[in-house]
Amino acid sequence: MAGGLIDLFLVASIPVLKLLILTALGSFLAFTASDILGDNARKRLNSLVFFVFNPAFVSSNLAKTITLERIISLWFMPVNIMSTFVIGSGLGWLVVKITKPPQHLKGLVLGCCSAGNLGNLPIVIILAVCRERGSPFGAPHLCHSSGMTYASLSMAIGAISLWSYVYNIVRISSSMGNADDPKRGTRPTKGTSDLVDGNFSNSEALVLGKDNSVSADHACHAKYKGESKVPICNQIKHYLTTLSSDINLRALFAPSTVGAVVGFIVGMVPQTRKLIVDDGAPLLVLYDAASLVSDAAIPTVALIMGANLLKGLKRSGSLARVICGIIGVRYVVQPAIGVAIVTAAKHYGALQLRLKDPLYEFVLHLQYALPPAMNIGTITQLFGAGESECSVIMLWTYAFASLSLTLWSTFFMWLVT
What we know:
CATH class of the largest domain: Mainly Alpha
Subcellular location: Endoplasmic reticulum membrane
Strand content: under 5%
Radius of gyration: 21 Å
Function: Involved in cellular auxin homeostasis by regulating auxin metabolism. Regulates intracellular auxin accumulation at the endoplasmic reticulum and thus auxin availability for nuclear auxin signaling.
Membrane topology: Multi-pass membrane protein
Family: Belongs to the auxin efflux carrier (TC 2.A.69.2) family.
Keywords: Auxin signaling pathway, Endoplasmic reticulum, Membrane, Transmembrane, Transmembrane helix, Transport
CATH topology of the largest domain: Na+/H+ antiporter like fold
Helix content: over 70%
Order of helices and strands: HHHHHHHHHHHHHHHHHHH
């Protein structure tokens, strides 16, 4: 028994160790002595990942691994991911109530609690686990094929959820924070073009449906703020109206989301699959080119993450209570709740179509134990709200993730096998 747990612990620690090595390299490259990944280089590289590497990664992997039959058999995974966002939001609301962060940081706290790194991190972990000797998930090539299906679907759904839900939470929180504190001013929302150019001033909004949507948020908030008592039903109506009226589809269809849609279409439609993906397809060169570009996604994101964590190390602030709350939610409470949900789903037959594949169950558990999504940092940059605080939060949550992910992965492997 003890020997088996030690073997599982070693298998689980390898992917985390590989990620730590790449992250440490990114931090070294961003260090003042070398400064290869300085601010400008990091912005350019982040734009390259955002617009090229991640969309190519998502689309190529979905096109290769997703079919209509597999989507049907994996129907519980989207439900599971939505559960992580709902549970995380509820726990994040408790963290906000207990720690009482400034208004402009409330959206950041909710986003960090609700949105896990459903994209690159599961892929790194799954691929490393499949290659390790003694892996409990069978032959490496079969594990790799199934694992890429699960990880690609997880990344696609996570990207859609992040940019349609967390983005607007941070947007509303930042606009209300500016209204509460006139000294902060109203910083213009940054556009995607500004991410490329590294110029964060005088830009058009990336996703706001109207040019004056931020000021409209301020006006609505000021109206309610001026009233002494507002019925709870009116408050709920106000927040729902603010959330729904200003959403622009350009936010929902971020490059990774567009790549996911393309990958779903190519993979699920037999005609396009035969045309682009299958062996001997006349347009197979398109898939090969996208796959070649996508290979750079994981190491590049790890390097950027290491550089950003160094930025967080240089910052200071009174965020100890907030950080402890987020770590408690993401690494203690939410994984424990996730074990109960996935176990109940298995007991009541929700995993019946994939019951013979322990890797599928492992991925479902893993989705509850991941650190916050790195793209939350990009979102805070877009609104200029909590950028330095986000760096500090990412630093400490990812530092604790090295131990937490190893322990939880070991437990999940033991549980499903």
